[in-house]
């Protein structure tokens, strides 16, 4: 079973991945050529050089902000026997939907004003404006996802419970 999370920055995708991980949902690890961000955990991705990335057997890949991201066949195969979650952009999610019939896409929804409040305080107004413009673009894919789950402020437990329920129902209908 493979759950693919999508949603704008700050909607809570990594927080949800961690929380549903406590219920036994395994997080798949993507490869990327981007550098590790300060404070980012070492296992957030397989951080690799472009030459190495090109050699990986990938099920899907995208070029995003000058860096490559992709999910390897080896990672996807884990989802054949285990309940798994991965966060992808819309382009990658479409590729996965074509190739992995049991993948379920879930858009994580949050109101704009809450997303803006969740942005780190040090981000200046110019950058905030750009990020929020991208939020509008990223939100357009919601209607094409299999499910939309609200992760409004204070509703993390409810959001995770809904995702676990979707996982249960999807396995039943397989
Ligand atoms: N239900 C919620 N209520 C309040 N705060 C939340 C909730 N869910 C997540 N947050 C907070 O919102 C912030 C952004 O969450 P997170 O990093 O999980 O988002 P994301 O979608 O993974 O973002 P990005 O795409 O930028 O990596 C974090 O500070 C997190 O603690
Ligand atoms: N198509 C894919 N998109 C991916 C993958 N791993 C992450 N992502 C998406 O890339 C951007 C940037 O991520 P960040 O860690 O730099 O914030 C974000 O939209 C992720 O959802 C992947 O394997 N394939």
TrEMBL record:
Q: Taxonomically, which superkingdom?
A: Bacteria
Offer a single GO CC term for the protein. cytosol
Enumerate the PANTHER family for this protein.
GUANYLATE KINASE (PTHR23117:SF13), GUANYLATE KINASE-RELATED (PTHR23117)
Q: Which PROSITE patterns does the annotation name?
A: GUANYLATE_KINASE_2
InterPro entries linked to this entry:
GK/Ca_channel_bsu, Guanylate_kin-like_dom, P-loop_NTPase
Listed A to Z, the keywords are: Kinase, Transferase
| GO-annotated molecular function | GMP kinase activity
Reaction(s) the record says it catalyses: GMP + ATP = GDP + ADP
Indicate the segments forming the Guanylate kinase-like domain, all copies.
1-168
Originating organism: Pelosinus fermentans B4
Keyword Metal-binding: yes or no? Answer: no
Q: What does this protein do?
A: Essential for recycling GMP and indirectly, cGMP.
A Pfam match is Guanylate_kin
Give the UniProt family note: Belongs to the guanylate kinase family.
**What is this protein identified as?**
Guanylate kinase
């Amino acid at each position: 079973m493979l759950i693919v999370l999508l949603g704008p920055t700050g909607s809570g995708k990594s927080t949800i991945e961690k929380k549903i991980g406590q219920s036994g949902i395994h997080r798949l690890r993507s490869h990327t050529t981007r550098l590790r961000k300060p404070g980012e955990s070492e296992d957030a991705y397989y951080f690799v050089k472009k030459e190495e990335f090109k050699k990986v057997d990938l099920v899907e890949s995208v070029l995003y902000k000058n860096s490559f991201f992709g999910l390897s066949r080896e990672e996807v195969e884990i989802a054949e026997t285990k309940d798994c979650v991965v966060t992808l952009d819309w382009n990658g999610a479409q590729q996965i939907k074509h190739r992995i019939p049991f993948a379920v896409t879930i858009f994580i929804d949050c109101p704009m004003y809450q997303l803006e409040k969740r942005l780190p305080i040090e981000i200046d107004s110019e950058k905030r404006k750009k990020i929020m413009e991208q939020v509008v673009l990223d939100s357009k894919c919601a209607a094409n996802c299999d499910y939309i789950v609200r992760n409004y402020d204070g509703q993390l437990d409810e959001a995770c419970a809904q995702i676990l329920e979707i996982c249960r129902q999807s396995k039943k209908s397989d």
